[in-house]
Amino acid sequence: MVNSSLPPPSLLLVLLFIFFSNALNLPSAAMDCHSSDRAALLKIKGQLGNPPELSSWMPATNCCAWDAAAAAAAVICSPDTGRVYLVALFQLHVDVAAPIPPAYGELPMLQTIQLDTLPGLYGHIPASFAKLAHLEQLDISGTQVSGPVPGFLTKTNLSALTITNSKLTGPIPGSLSRLSSLRYLDLSGNMLSGSIPPGLLHGSSRFLILSSNRLTGEVPAGYADGDMDTLDLSHNQLAGDPSFLFGATKPFRKIDLSWNRLAFDMTGVRFPYHLNYLDLSHNRIRGRVSKSLKDVNVLHLDVSYNQLCGEIPAGRYMAYHQADSYANNKCLCGTPLPPCKKPRYARL
């Protein structure tokens, strides 16, 4: 099995943009920032307790040119207007213990907020975020942020919403489906409960990552349709038959349904040709290992801890999977497991 997990595309885009902005010395730093944006950023600094990494954030200076110690923060402005449209904070001083600053809501042209690996950040997502009509990417990871996923986020223009490894509780609001540009949703590593609302994603190349929560019910049928790239619902309490997700022509590249209570017969299932990550382990899947997997170049395959039986199909891409991909099933046999026992009559 190969681990193909990557940082979310929203995070990668932010990091790449910051890198190339610094490397090429883009002109956004040359224009003085808008005075109200500078005032809002100074409020954010104060509401975080004035961490030392933000020592360059000073009054009467150009906030578009602010640098941060140890690359702990980034502020990017429009080269045409001087308005701040990206604020990213990474791994601030361990002593930072504060709620998410409400002053973010005073940056009206803000498109991206990133708060990454800030274990002292706590409390609910501020209601002031509802004023950020241009907000496209919200990334909050590795914090103590708690409370519900706020419905007022529908007043933004989010295309990517990531709130991971935090302490969110309650249901996922179905109103998020009104975010017509939302195509990337990652709420993994929280304590969310209830069922998965239908229709949360729109557009092309969709990612739905809700792993490591307390979600129940069945997978909504609509997630089998559209341009779905990734579906990760692992480590929940989901039940039912999700086999409608599969099909040779489905665009999925990653499906992880492991550690649930899902049940279906795999024998006749045809898996997507483009799939490169499939984890169905720790469920209640029965039947035989599907022969269609011979024709799918799955880099990570795990169907262990199920109720599968019979001889594992051989040939083509099946040769790349090791024994741990099939461990702890009912009665699987054949390469890479021990050979199948021949019926007694065949030995006569």
**Oligomeric form:** single chain
CATH H-level homologous superfamily name:
Ribonuclease Inhibitor
Radius of gyration: 24 Å
In total, the number of domains comes to 1
- Specify the number of helices: 2
List the secondary-structure elements in sequence, H or E. HHEEEEEEEEEEEEEEEEEEEEEE
Helix fraction by DSSP (H/I, runs of at least 4): under 10%
Largest sheet: 11 strands, mixed
CATH class: Alpha Beta
Question: Termini, distance in Å?
Answer: 39 Å
Low-confidence regions: 1-8, 13-28
Strand percentage, roughly? 15-25%
CATH topology: Leucine-rich repeat, LRR (right-handed beta-alpha superhelix)
- Overall outline: elongated
Strands of the widest sheet, in order across it, are 1-2-4-6-8-10-12-14-16-18-20
Instruction: Give the mean pLDDT.
Output: 90
Structural class: mainly beta
Number of strands: 22
CATH architecture: Alpha-Beta Horseshoe
Characterization of the model:
This protein is mainly beta and 348 residues long. It has a single domain (9-347), classed as Ribonuclease Inhibitor (Leucine-rich repeat, LRR (right-handed beta-alpha superhelix), Alpha-Beta Horseshoe). The chain is built from two helices and 22 strands. The protein has helices at residues 9-24, 35-47, and strands at 73-77, 84-90, 98-99, 112-116, 121-123, 137-141, 144-147, 160-164, 167-170, 184-186, 191-194, 206-209, 214-217, 228-232, 237-240, 254-256, 261-262, 277-279, 286-287, 300-302, 307-311, 331-333. The strands form three sheets. It has an eleven-stranded mixed β-sheet, covered by helices on one side. Strands 3-5-7-9-11-13-15-17 form an eight-stranded parallel β-sheet, with no helix packed on it. A hairpin with a 6-residue loop joins β1 (73-77) and β2 (84-90). The longest helix has 16 residues, at 9-24. The chain starts with 8 loop residues before the first helix and ends in a 15-residue tail after the last strand. It holds the Pfam family LRR_1. Residues 1-23 form the signal peptide. Residues 34-67 form the Leucine-rich repeat-containing N-terminal plant-type domain. This is Polygalacturonase inhibitor 1. InterPro entries: Leu-rich_rpt, LRR_dom_sf, LRR_N_plant-typ, PGIP.
